[in-house]
Design brief:
Layout: H1 4-18, E1 20-22, E2 30-32, H2 56-68, H3 73-78, H4 85-93, H5 106-112, H6 114-133, H7 135-141, H8 148-154, E3 155-156, E4 162-163, H9 165-175, E5 183-185, E6 201-209, E7 212-219
Antiparallel strand pairs: 1-2, 3-4, 5-6, 6-7
Helix pairs in contact: 2-8, 5-6, 6-7
């Protein structure tokens, strides 16, 4: 098994040499391959990359947010994590209550128009402050819909039951380690249209063998 850094660099090389150019919803475009797999042996250490900036603090706080079952950006902002701001901000500026300057297509405009970017940053800072200080505003405009945390910790079944997938899989691993059903699924087709963003890491499965725990993650393109 290759060191984590080398596995990542091999992926980049493979994508550049074998990938297919495709357009996407952002209009930026991608070069992609389908079904590529990387393997990492965590007994050799955490595969933190050194050839790109990896904001580990943000990764950790976002993961804790998922595990909490939270779907509101307020927790993230309290931890100085701005990963999900734009989706919540979009809901705010498209609402009937917003009366500020035109923020249409703010993501693209802020990249090419320095003057607009300054205005956008001011409005975003106002938005973040209200999320942190105004409970009612945060409840209404900080929510991202039934994203990761909701699906992991409170999946709603067709019978109206609430299923804590994360708790269940931990119990299964402890009490029935040889089961082939150690799965946590984030991609709920019935809820996708109500999510700010469909889950990128859409499911993961655990496997126990010889006293060791493995995890396989499926990341959608």
């Amino acid at each position: 098994m290759k060191h984590g850094e080398n596995a990542y660099l091999d992926l980049l090389k493979h994508v550049l040499e074998k990938g297919t150019k495709k357009m996407d919803r952002t209009g930026t475009g991608t070069v992609s391959v389908f079904g590529y797999q990387m393997r990492f042996n965590l007994s050799e250490g955490f595969p933190l990359l050194t050839t790109k900036r990896v904001p580990f603090r943000l990764i950790a706080s976002e993961l804790l947010w998922f595990i909490k079952g939270d779907t509101n950006i307020r927790y993230l902002l309290k931890n100085n994590n701005n990963i999900w701001n734009e989706w919540a901000f979009k809901n705010w500026i498209e609402s009937n209550e917003y009366t500020g300057p035109d923020m249409t297509d703010f993501g693209n405009r802020s990249l090419v128009d320095p003057e607009f970017n300054e205005l956008y940053q001011v409005e975003m800072d106002k938005f973040k402050t209200r999320i942190l200080e105004d409970d009612e505003f945060a409840s209404k405009y900080g929510e991202l819909g039934p994203v990761y945390g909701k699906q992991w910790r409170a999946w709603e079944s067709s019978r109206g039951e609430t299923i804590d997938q994360l708790k269940n899989v931990i119990n299964q691993i402890k009490n029935n380690p040889d089961s082939r059903r150690h799965l946590v699924v984030g991609y709920n087709p019935g809820d996708v249209e109500f999510m700010a963003l469909p889950p990128c890491h859409s499911l993961f499965q655990f496997y126990v063998a010889d006293g060791k725990l493995s995890c396989q993650l499926y990341q959608r393109l």
